[in-house]
């Protein structure tokens, strides 16, 4: 159907209806319904968080009625604030420790793995690549249970037992696929010409890696480090299954077990708020860092945003 | 060609000169095939990750199998792993099978409930996530940045924080009930063990991951294809059904997988939002058996879940590989 036919139809329609019809027939009109829906979704997804943060400043003990502003649950209360309650206090540092150690171990292993697997062709590397992507999609509970069994049952691992080591090993295995996948995706877009050029100019493979490939990959490596770090802050299942006592229980598990045990209160909201601020801080730094590292490339803010969220 | 031997493995440098890269006339072809890196360099780079995966990913699943097919130590009341496949016992397997499909099958009901919850929750997630992702990818225009920040924000908020937020809101004297009773709709006990609360929790918990995958996929659709659909005479709806939807099949499938797989292993959402026995899912069954004498049955149950999910997981891996190859 031609657009002139549409135009004729519109022009022959009554004057009163005309503007409305034109509005609906205009193929490029703004989709107000969709926009409204999107806003509703955003409110539904974010308002509860805002309210939960507000409750962390609640004067009273309730998580349901708001009674005024206070720092009580952060440090005001000498017994049950996150600074003075030993369990909540140590949970914060445990989370940071796990995040830092996991990132330091998982990212180099994952990056080297990606480089090696991507360039070494054959059955062995592709089956290991398969295994790596499998570790990315296997349900966390199933993987966590398997980990739980080796640290409680299997000779050789049983000696380490549950606790910090088990948590770090579990988290590294669970997160190593982030750098491996992201760096491989970047390698594909970079192509081989830089490597070939540097080899033609007389670089050894090692020099090519260090002087050419690594600088090209830095943004991808950085983005994956941000993802691993914040992923560990928010991780729950693995640390829940592999922690053994209060001294190695991170924030997410404390929130779960305390709330589930019926001892919830605004102090938990305060702990959750600390987690939130930490995650947003990491995300913000990640965004800034990524922008700085990709300066001069055609990468806009939106691409940087999706890159540090692992969607690129 | 490099003259120095690569550092790294002691393996000898490959004999370069007679390279297949030089064409008939001895003239190097375009794309310089004379570059022949030493394979062992790549092997060495990949080795730590390969060893790690073999030891920390493959062995744990074997241990799980060994415990599932193992015995029970009657004195300590704890499961004993049997690592030799020839002496495996099928006691746990028969028990689990009976629980799942036998006459008094309580686990069978839990499995059905899990499938039901996950199906409803993931479809609801898709219905909510798709329009929002579609709007931001296609129509947000100059405000795309701010929409994207808001869309991605929940991705950075811990799952526990998000559940806690709903626990606060859904308490009997919480804000949701205050609004409801103000409108005159009574005040239901949301956290008293209801399926709808658990499903709401699942949708709310996993939708950020889905929406991110959908956004990334929809954003990649070339707008000129949609314009072409319009120019060729399709209306808004027609273009959507015949152009946009087929092009978003892949992101929808990936997104569904990425939400369904963790949902099936979820045990915390319904512990926090319901806690009742008659909303428990397969994850609760597995997690609840871990430190008990029936841990072996938990292992078998985990393996059954894994086996069932192997097909969609392998589908995901194959798709990921295919996408990577298409990009080369």
CATH class of the largest domain in chain A: Mainly Alpha
Ends distance of chain A: 39 Å
Q: Structural class, from helix and strand content of chain A?
A: mainly alpha
CATH fold label of the largest domain in chain A: MetI-like fold
What's a quick, concise take on this entry?
By secondary structure, chain A is mostly helical.
Question: Can you walk me through this structure?
Answer:
- The complex is a heterodimer of chains A (312) and B (328).
- Chain A is an all-alpha fold and 312 residues long.
- Helix content of chain A is 73%, strand content 0%.
- Chain B is mostly helical and 328 residues long.
- Chain B folds into 2 domains: 39-89, no CATH class; 106-327, MetI-like fold (Orthogonal Bundle).
- A two-stranded antiparallel ribbon of chain B has the order 1-2.
- The two termini of chain B are 24 Å apart.
- Residues 1-32 of chain B have low confidence and may be disordered.
Note the main attributes of this structure.
heterodimer, A: 312 residues, mainly alpha, MetI-like fold, 2 domains, 15 helices, 73% helix, 0% strand, globular, B: 328 residues, two-stranded antiparallel ribbon, 13 helices, disordered N terminus
Helix/strand layout:
The complex is a heterodimer of chains A (312) and B (328).
Chain A: H1 3-12, H2 15-25, H3 32-55, H4 72-76, H5 86-119, H6 123-137, H7 140-153, H8 164-175, H9 177-190, H10 193-200, H11 205-234, H12 237-242, H13 251-260, H14 266-293, H15 301-308
Chain B: H1 39-68, E1 71-73, E2 78-80, H2 91-101, H3 106-138, H4 144-152, H5 159-170, H6 175-183, H7 195-219, H8 223-231, H9 236-247, H10 249-264, H11 268-273, H12 282-289, H13 295-327
Antiparallel strand pairs in B: 1-2
Helix pairs in contact in B: 1-13, 2-3, 2-13, 3-7, 3-10, 7-10, 8-9, 12-13
